[in-house]
Amino acid sequence: MTSEGATVPESLVDLAMQRGEWRGCGVDANRERPYFVLDDLWEAYKEWSAYGAGVPLVLDGCDGVVQYYVPYLSAIELYGDSSVLQSSSNPRLHMMDDSDEDFRDSSSDGSSDYEHVRAKHFAQEGFSRDVGESGVTHGRLLFQYLEFDSPFCREPFTDKISSLSARFPGLRTLRSCDLSARSWMSIAW
């Protein structure tokens, strides 16, 4: 039995950044910690998004075929310190706020390519920081996307990431160390 997995190049946190102004990785001053850029993660899905991931199957105990599965984004939530976005030199790298809207693909009903839907907003009272039982701060919800269409009606994974990152550039530029361990995504194959 074989398995497939996304492989991304990792970098090491710059020691100069560890010593002062930057705390996104929460690193120990004596150790470098690896991280990856989200764009590298999306790049790992590029070929699968275009051609599918081949899975060999044996039919009736003798005939071999390869079935291809294509990834589709189901949902994503990114949590972290909003100061990472606000202190960025890139003015387009911003946290979604009450004026932003999310896109929901609505092509299954044939009415339009996209339907604007209000995003769940993150500046609500008591929602800006989440502290777990251990007292560890999980950070602020930086980005959220939930897909409602069936997988066979969705945009290919990399196309969806491209359209979402046009509205939230952090989807490409954030580093894994900028995000809380509470961040997650769901992919349908």
TrEMBL record:
Pfam families: DUF789 (PF05623). PANTHER family: OS01G0513400 PROTEIN, T15D22.8. This is DUF789 domain-containing protein. The lineage of its organism: Eukaryota, Viridiplantae, Streptophyta, Embryophyta, Tracheophyta.
